[in-house]
Amino acid sequence: MRSSRTAQLGAVGVVAALVLVIVVGANALGIMGGSPSPSPVAQASTPPTTATTEPSATASPTASPSPTPVPTPTAVPTPVTVAAPLTGERVDPAIARRHPIAVMIDDLRPARPQSGLSQADVVWQAPAEGGIPRYMAIFQTELPKDIGPVRSSRYYYITWAAEWRAIYTHAGGSPQALNTLKSKGRGQYVYNLDAFRHPSAFRRIKTRSAPHNLYTTGPNLRKTGGAIGAKDQAYKAAWNFAPDVPLDQRPSGGSITVSYLANTITYKYDRTSNTYFRSVTGEAKQTDASNKQRIAPKNVIVMRMKFGPLGDNPHKGRLEADVIGSGKAWIATNGTTIVGTWKKTSVTAPTQFFDGQGKPVTLTIGQTFINVMQLSSPVSFKAGKPPAPASPVASPTPSQ
After folding, report:
1. Which of 40, 57, 77, 86 is 20 to 30 Å apart from 203, CA to CA?
2. Per-residue pLDDT, 348
3. Higher pLDDT, 236 or 29
4. What is the chain's mean pLDDT, rounded?
């Protein structure tokens, strides 16, 4: 019995072992349902499987970041400019269309220094009473905040202002001048702006005594001129202008001296600035009282003209002049003075200047002072030292 039981137990053990093997093999082969995770023992006893490596695709290069676009700067338009008719300077078109303003300015010693002369485009100076001079300043490109002292009118000044049909500013005048302004002062010759008729455009300063204390401003005159009919318009230049000559072509020194009854004026040429520094009796360096700027025009013209007693009042010594016609003139610009002529054919025609061959002169761009002298008045000129000749450029030595 004992042997039979043993045999049965052995048979059972064999069967159990076979079942275990089948189960283990099935699990290993994945035959049984599901895919349970292998036990740690099975993992440990199972040899590692060598994975087959698939060739990987070549990695695409990383694209560089796009640069930040730089905004295209907005083009700034070049300002449009035109040549100012009285100076040749480049200015805004609206400035070149401004109605010119002519102002009579005192030149007696108590009136010095005057205000506004440095900012005028053109300044005329001529004898007014018995040889005592007076200025007429013409403004267009600049409108000074102070102009004066304002004085009375004379007929020949009206004819120079009439060349632009200017807003003619004065305080009274000779009977001859006032009669002309009465009949021709609404644009026929000029636009008559008399301080006695338009007092609101003027003021009296307290630091000087009458009649040397009447002052005005450019904006006031422009506003009042518009009210009496003066309109802006296109103007044609009466003279030719050109830029300064180069520094190495300018002379050194030189001067011009003219004498009126109560004022001697000297111009000294300054090579660096290409201007003529102005001095007057009592002022070694003539300056503008309004801005302390030295009076130094680019061009100086001296013209001879016949003057005689007007005869309207023997106590006043007023003069008349042969303003329509022609005569001798000296034209100084770029440090050089030439002898020529002046010519004016009618009241409203421009005064023109010609060289010795009768050709129109060319002035330097900028301010012009014109000194009108009686036939017998002293006038003198001193030439400057000519510029040094340019050194010749040596030819290069040929290589051996």
Report:
1. 86
2. 98
3. 236
4. 85
Same-domain status, 199 and 256: no
pLDDT confidence of residue 287: 98
**Cα(105)–Cα(318) distance, integer angstroms:** 16
- pLDDT at residue 328 in the model: 98
Structural domain includes residue 232: no
Which residue type occupies 378? P
In a domain, 11, yes or no: no
Residue type, position 239, single letter: W
Q: What CATH number is attached to the domain comprising 367?
A: 3.50.90.10
User: Which conformational region is residue 345 in: left (phi greater than 0), alpha (psi within -120 to 50 degrees), or beta?
Assistant: alpha
Tell whether 262 and 363 lie within a shared domain.
yes
Domain boundary among 197, 227, 257: 227
CA angle 283/158/308 to nearest 5° reads 75
Using pLDDT thresholds of 50, 70 and 90, give the confidence band for residue 42.
very low
Of the candidates 98, 215, 210, which has an alpha carbon nearest to the alpha carbon of residue 146? 215
- State phi, psi for 379 to the nearest 5 degrees: -140, 130
What is the number of domains present in the chain? 2
Q: Do 250 and 378 belong together in one domain?
A: yes
Q: State how far the alpha carbon of 224 is from the alpha carbons of 198, 217, 227, 240, 389, in Å.
A: 8, 11, 5, 31, 54
Query: Looking at residues 235-257, what average pLDDT do you find?
Result: 98
Classify burial at 122, counting beta carbons within 10 Å of its beta carbon; exposed 0-12, middle 13-18, buried 19 or more: buried
Strand partners, 372: 303
pLDDT band at 24 (very low <50, low <70, confident <90, very high): very low
- Both 251 and 185 in one domain: the answer is no
pLDDT score, position 27: 41
What is the extent of the structural domain holding 148? 82-227
Kindly state whether residues 221 and 310 are assigned to the same domain.
no
Q: Are both 157 and 292 inside the same structural domain?
A: no
* Cα 210 to Cα 130: distance, rounded to the nearest angstrom: 20
With 50 as the cut, is the pLDDT of residue 39 above it? Answer: no
Examine the fold and report which residue of 177, 202, 227 is the final residue of a domain before the chain moves on.
227
> How confident is the model at residue 171, as a pLDDT?
98
Q: Could you tell me which residues are beta bridge partners of residue 90?
A: 83
Identify whether residues 269 and 195 lie together within a single domain: no
